[in-house]
Amino acid sequence: MLVSPGGNRADVAAAVRLCGQLETITAGSYLFKLNPVAIWGSAARGLTVDTILDRLDCHAATPVPAQVAALISRHHARYGVIWIERSDGEPARLRSSDPSVLARSGLGDCPELRDRDIPQIKQQLASEGWPVVDRYERQDDDELAISWRPGVELRPYQIEAVSAHLQAGNGLVLLPCGAGKTMVGVGVAVDVRTRTLILAPSREIADQWERTLVETTTVNPEDVSVAVGDRKPTPITITTYHSASTGRVGSSLAASSWGLVIYDEVQSLPANVFRAVSAFSAVRRLGLSATLVREDGREAEIFAMVGPVVYDVPWVELERDGWIAPAQCHEVRIPEAPGTRQRQLFKHAVIERILSLHEGKPALIVGSRIQWLESVARRFDVPVLTGKDDPATREETFEAFRTGRISRLAVSRIGSVGLDLPTAELMIQVDGNFGSRQEEAQRLGRLLRPGDGQPVHFYSLVSLGTREPKYARRRQRFLVNQGYEYEILDAADLPRVARAGVQSRDDFGE
């Protein structure tokens, strides 16, 4: 479809997102692919086929092709044909307005569902082109007393995201790191005022949810808890995916009825050890993510488990509007070295040059290989946090970084997802997790909390003569598709570090 000249780019992209999924942004041009899940998301929000086509026509230089209109209509018509019917105290039942669909899928003779079978059945039907809608009639208990504290306001796009989810009932909200996905989740909880379960990828992030709820809303702190041990669920219960999937905590949560379940970093959900939590009884489900990608390709399962994407904004759009920090990405290529020890020395030299170039900027040095990180920490006399540290030590050190008591910190993969470190302005990635697009984007996300409008800098160190260049290209793909560009730098071209007026003599084979 050709877009008419002179149209507002954001308005055009918003119209196309009603039926398509963003594939890439190149030189300011957006490439979308017609996608059934996007169409189901529009249907979930109550948008008709005519509405979708009218919005496309508003921006099209030529009429929407008949075959495209037919595909949109066909996929739209499938939303709501199959649903799971639940009510308190009764087993879940699979229903359809067209029983022949279930018969062709081999599901016509099993209307009653066991909770553990629901994720698999949803995924099977979605893969056959039939989304499954949750319809849960719940006799709600007393309305939860919760509202915003005076002075707390959502940003315009956060308000749009909350509204889109409330219209749909179930679905995914995709926003960049630093854009305030937690506030969207709290906004939904404030509006629905019901028993809420929040699933987070780590205890640190669970604690962040608890603090945000208590600090921004009027909810009674005693009604909010992070579930551990034998403690009974509270009206708002927060826990980790791991805890919810195992032991007494998991059993207690599974036996409870929830008005709302929020899946933070929802890309974690398809993991075999976590997927059972997608079947917890809930009137509404909300998935939150910045990076809906998985290297095993199972992100498509998320749509079946939680619902379609109901709100999505490209990263560069929020950067352009000042809601997240402008970022400059750099790939620093380090010359071949005869062995591991020499590669480490080369990387130390590069880190020194980068830190000198950005003197005074709060800096995170991140990596996946603990041994390499520890060598960097020793060389530059900075604290290092890994999974071996206890939660109290990690939180104390993170808080020291947030408050400026320390300005440099080395962090392993524990810092890749969801942690709130708003003061960071510089990140040096010593190594990545092979070709993980999600990790690359999540690491950049630690820098994107809006600050003074000055650009933040993300440096990825890549050793030539190894597999790192290949992995780096794959890791960068998600961010490139979001519109970011990587500046390619040779290590030798970085400014040398001056010590007492004498240039350093690190040897990169010059």
What characteristics describe this protein?
7-stranded parallel sheet, 19 helices, alpha/beta, 510 residues, 22 strands
Report the average pLDDT across residues. Answer: 87
- Based on CA atoms alone, the radius of gyration comes out at 24 Å
Unreliable residue runs:
500-505
The biggest sheet, with number of strands, parallel, antiparallel or mixed sense and barrel status, is: 7 strands, parallel
Number of helices: 19
- According to DSSP, the number of beta strands is 22
The shape, in one word, is globular
- Estimated structural class: alpha/beta
In angstroms, what separates the terminal alpha carbons? Answer: 52 Å
Strand arrangement, major sheet: 9-10-8-11-12-7-13
- Looking at the chains present, what oligomeric state does this protein adopt? single chain
Structure description:
This protein has 510 residues and is α/β, with parallel strands linked by helices. It is 36% helix and 21% strand. Strands 9-10-8-11-12-7-13 form a seven-stranded parallel β-sheet. Strand 21 (498-499) and strand 22 form a beta hairpin. It is globular and about 70 Å long. Residues 500-505 have low confidence and may be disordered.
What's the structural blueprint in terms of helices and strands?
Layout lengths: L8 H8 L3 E7 L2 E6 L1 H9 L4 H11 L6 H12 L4 E6 L4 E5 L2 H6 L7 E2 L4 H10 L4 E6 L18 H13 L1 E5 L6 H12 L3 E5 L2 H14 L7 E3 L9 E5 H5 L1 H8 L3 E6 L18 E8 L10 H6 L3 E4 L2 H6 L6 E8 L5 H18 L5 E4 L3 H11 L3 E2 L5 H12 L5 E4 L14 E4 L7 H9 L10 E8 L4 H8 L1 H5 L4 E5 L7 E2 L2 E2 L7
Parallel strand pairs: 3-6, 7-12, 7-13, 8-10, 8-11, 9-10, 11-12, 14-19, 14-20, 15-17, 15-18, 16-17, 18-19
Antiparallel strand pairs: 1-2, 3-4, 4-5, 21-22
